[in-house]
C-alpha cells in the first residue's frame, strides 16, 4: 500500500515527458542546418510555404521575435515546403529575414513532425524536446506565443533577464 | 461475380488518398476558388437574398489550403 501511495505521489510530482524533436539536416541558402547543433538553445521551428497567406503573415512577427531575443539562447528555423524553390526565393527576397530558412521540398521533415496545417510551428527546448506545437497563425495569438517563448527561456535559463523585453 | 465486384471496389479505394497540408499549394491558387470572379458572387448573392430573403451558406472557410 505504501509503495502504491509513494508511486502515485511520484507520478504526480514527476515532470511530464516530452517527445524528442525529430532530428533533421536540411539545406539552407547558406550552409546546411542540423537541429542537434542548436542544442542548448530554444528553437522555434516553423513550416511554411509561399502559397500560404498566414505563413507569410507570420514572417514579420518571427523577424521581430528574433530581434527581440537576439541576446538570448533563441533561434528560429523556418522550413520551406514549396516544391518550386523559386517561389520561396521570391518571397524570401522581399523580407529582411534574420534567421536561417531551410528547404524541404520532399516534405520528409514535415512528415516526421506530423504537420497538420500550414503554417505549423514547434518550440524545441534546450534538450531537443518538443514543448509546444502551434497550427496556423493569427495576429491575436502573437502575444501569447511571445509569452510562451519568454517563459521557456526563463525556465531554461533562470539567470537570464527577460523582464525588460516585455516592454515595447 | 462477387469476387470481381469486391476486387474492383478495393482497387477504387486505393484512389482515396488524403492530401497532406503541404500538398495544397494548387488549391490555394486564386484560380481554384469556387467562384473566381468577385463581382459574379456579389451579384449572385444579391439576387439570392432578394428572392429568398436569406443570405450566406455559399462558401467554405478558406481556400482549402488548410491554413485556417
Please compute the radius of gyration of chain A using only Cα atoms.
18 Å
Stretches with pLDDT under 50, minimum 5 residues of chain A: none
CATH homolog superfamily of chain A: Glutaredoxin
Strand elements of chain A, count: 7
Termini Cα gap of chain B: 46 Å
Please count the helical segments of chain A.
5
Strand order of the largest sheet of chain A: 5-4-3-6-7
- Helix segment count of chain B? 2
Radius of gyration of chain B: 19 Å
Structure classification of chain B: mainly alpha
Global mean pLDDT of chain B: 76
Assign an overall shape of chain B: elongated
Which pair has the most extensive contact? A-B, 20 and 12 residues
What percent strand of chain A?
Answer: 15-25%
What does this structure look like?
- The complex is a heterodimer of chains A (168) and B (68).
- Chain A is built from 5 helices and 7 strands; from the N terminus they run αβββαβαβαββα.
- Chain A is an alpha/beta fold and 168 residues long.
- Chain A has a single domain (17-165), classed as 3-Layer(aba) Sandwich (Glutaredoxin).
- In chain A, helix 3 (85-93) links the parallel strand 4 and strand 5.
- The N and C termini of chain A lie far apart (55 Å).
- The longest helix of chain B is centred in the middle third of the chain and has 15 residues, at 38-52.
- In chain B, 40% of the residues lie in helices and 0% in strands.
- Chain B has a domain at 25-55.
- With 68 residues, chain B is mostly helical.
- The chains are: A alpha/beta (168), B mainly alpha (68).
- The A-B interface holds A 47, 49, 51-55, 81-83, 107, 110-111, 115-120, 136 and B 20-25, 28-29, 65-68.
